[in-house]
Amino acid sequence: MKGYDLFELAVRNLRQSKLRNGLTTIGISVGVASLVAMLSLGVGLQQLATRRLAGSGMFDTVFVMSKQDTRGFDRDEDRKDQHPEKAPVLDEAARQQMTHLPNVTEVEPEVRVMGQIVYGGQTHFGFVTGLPMSAHENEAFDNLQGNFFSGSDADEVILLNDFAKELEPQNPKSLIGQQVTLRYGEHQSLAADSENSGRPQGGDQSDNASADAGSDYGFSVVRKAQQLKVVGIVDEEPYGGMRTVSRGRIFLPVDLTEKLNMAEFSDMRSSLRGHGKTYATLTVRVKDPAKVAQVQDTIKQMGFRTFSVLDATKSLRRFFTVLDLFLGIFGSLALAVATLAIINTLVMAVLERRREIGVMKAIGASDRDVKRLFFAEAGAMGFFGGILGIALGFAIGKAINLGTGIYLRNHQLPAEPVWILPTWLIGAAIAFSILVSLLAGLYPASRAARLDPVQTLKYE
Amino acid sequence: MSSSPASLAVRTQNVCRYYPMGETLIRAVDGISLDIASGEFVALLGQSGSGKSTLLNLIAGLDRPTSGAVLVQGRDLAKMSSEELAGYRRNDVGMVFQAFHLIPNMTITENVELPMRFAEVDRAERVERVRESLERVGLGKRLEHRPSQLSGGEQQRVSIARALANRPSLLLADEPTGNLDSRTGEDILKLIRDLSQSLGMTVIMVTHERGLAERFAQRLIFLGDGKLISQETLA
């Protein structure tokens, strides 16, 4: 029998017992809906977690430090035959090299210095932190009051909300648009020449020896003041999740901090080692979180110590795989019950249609034709049940999102979708529904095919 | 009756069909040997339980003999696989039953079309053949009716049209007049005889109505207790 004849006959047969087949199809749809709702919840929760973590700016970032500065930092590291003093320094040349690596979008120094804000005749201390323009995408700026910096070296400042309250306890928001004075220590090199000529690039021992022997490199810290316009107030420090004591409270565009040549704590260390201007930490931003590992490896090969939260994402993926598995198992329970309903419906149909099966065989249907016909009926119920199930699952998911949204808003939290139906799941659920229905149709179909036409026609 | 192998439609050779029933063995067909010529109209007569329907089922390929052979156009049905037997029923045999056995939720057109679906006849050709078959039985204008909307005689005509759909060489009729009044029964047998003559089909009919059989068949074969009792060739 040809495919379209099979389909036509199957649909026609299903229409003959509308109520029973309809109820079975609804049973399948409830099973599919439950599976879809559960798996979509898993997908939604995973995306929510990923979104939250990605928003923290950690997932596309590699933090780079010199091994000279972080001796003993990594306890897992094999320290045999290592000479940290030979490790390359994190200087402008290294920064430029990293900037040109594939998939790297931005390499910015992590500037963190003590500063003083003068406002209304009062002085207030705080850590000054340089922020790249890309920081605007950080979730810390989701609730920014005012604006982000207008340019990467604009004379502008964003204040931490707590700090702004120190400056203006009654109405911190009124600071936006006001001018404040930043006092800071400017790094002034004493021997500018040596910065380019005497600084070792690769930690060569002879260079270090000459530095130790009496490099003339040194610097002065000169108190300076800079007028800045307050453009915004932010509730928490971007990328500041791991910091405690050194939490930044005064945020400047990173290029401005470099232009102002602010003296950093690490300058003293560099000076003692005889290096020129070096960076304590460089923050390397990668185009795609998937490329983080590759960039991280390349930088490691350059001889630097790196850190990213890649390992944390691996654990997270493992957790969600297990969660999806369990949600899938619970979701499948309803489908398992629906499978029994299909078997029951088709076995009943075989009993009821004994004579019809006998007639079909007498007029030329083969056992295979009969089997395929019952398979097609099971498959059609699976197909229609799958489509209905997707629609039902979608409605359940929307209800979950609506309910969660109301609950979150009642707890003064922004509403977020926790249930997301991915496109692949629509196709997969329908395919799974058909597959399960076909499996359920195996026994009834083979029972129908085995019917003896002589016996079925004899009793009529 | 003896026929040359070329014109032989059906030959049974010492065919037996036994059923176990509890501890007894029912000898429904017990060593029947028969030759039926191509284009012949044969009637199988006998009491209930004489084995005539069982013999018809063996010739139809719906049942398999316990022993012996059933040869149709030289092919031994006993040696065919179930798939081959289905093909034989589909292409070589048309069956007509006492209870008509039309599928009630299908229209007349769909009922007649059904064997052609199994034979994978093209849709366009099916429409033509349905019309042709129904016109042959005089029901060319009742295409969209359901079996329940037709009289018994009309339903049997549809059943004959369905049997003709795949243009078989052998028409097997099991008590085709059993559910019909005598006049309608006569009409049906007249139709079968005419079709047999015009299409050159071999007809084997099971009946217990000797009068009708004598009027339409060319040969009467009498069975009793699964055995061939006698044969009578009519003029």
In words, what does this structure look like?
The complex is a heterodimer of chains A (460) and B (235). Chain A is built from 14 helices and eleven strands. Chain A has a six-stranded mixed barrel. In chain A, strands 2-10-1-11 form a four-stranded antiparallel beta sheet, with helices on one face. In chain A, helix 1 crosses helix 12, helix 2 crosses helix 12 and helix 2 runs antiparallel to helix 13. The radius of gyration of chain A is 35 Å and the shape is elongated. The two termini of chain A are 26 Å apart. With 235 residues, chain B is of the alpha/beta class. The two termini of chain B are 13 Å apart. In chain B, helix 3 crosses helix 4, helix 4 crosses helix 5 and helix 5 runs parallel beside helix 6. Chains A and B meet through helix 1, helix 11, helix 12 and helix 14 of A and helix 2 and helix 3 of B.
Give the gist of this structure.
The complex is a heterodimer of chains A (460) and B (235). With 460 residues, chain A is α+β, with helices and mostly antiparallel strands.
Q: Notable features of this structure?
A:
heterodimer; A: 460 residues; alpha+beta; 2 domains; six-stranded mixed β-barrel; four-stranded antiparallel β-sheet; 14 helices; B: 235 residues; alpha/beta; six-stranded mixed β-sheet; 7 helices; 10 strands
